[in-house]
Design a protein that fits this description.
Keywords: Ribonucleoprotein, Ribosomal protein. Belongs to the universal ribosomal protein uL30 family. It holds the Pfam family Ribosomal_L30. This protein is an alpha+beta fold. The chain has a domain of about 50 residues: Ribosomal Protein L30, Chain: A, CATH 3.30.1390. The chain has three helices and three strands. It is globular.
Length: about 80
């Protein structure tokens, strides 16, 4: 039987790893959900860089826009 702490454990970062995400391509011609994903990541211009925690949610967002961004892992 799963407890309520198991559900919240998945949304917290598993390590101190950070992801540096840089937008490298334009959103012109991209689908609406991809534009919204970039906005949620905090990206709005080409060559803009943001640092995010390495969580499954962020990894999924990056997967959605993987052709528009580059990603580097940075250990903190």
């Amino acid at each position: 039987m799963a407890t309520s702490t198991d559900a919240t454990a998945q949304s917290t970062p598993t390590s101190s790893t950070k992801l540096v995400v840089t937008q490298v391509r334009s959103t012109i011609g991209a689908k609406a959900n991809q534009r919204a994903t970039l906005k949620s990541l905090g990206l709005r211009k080409i060559r803009q860089t943001v640092e995010r925690d390495d969580t499954p949610q962020i990894r999924g967002m990056i997967h959605t826009v993987r052709h528009l961004v580059t990603v580097e892992e940075v250990g903190s």
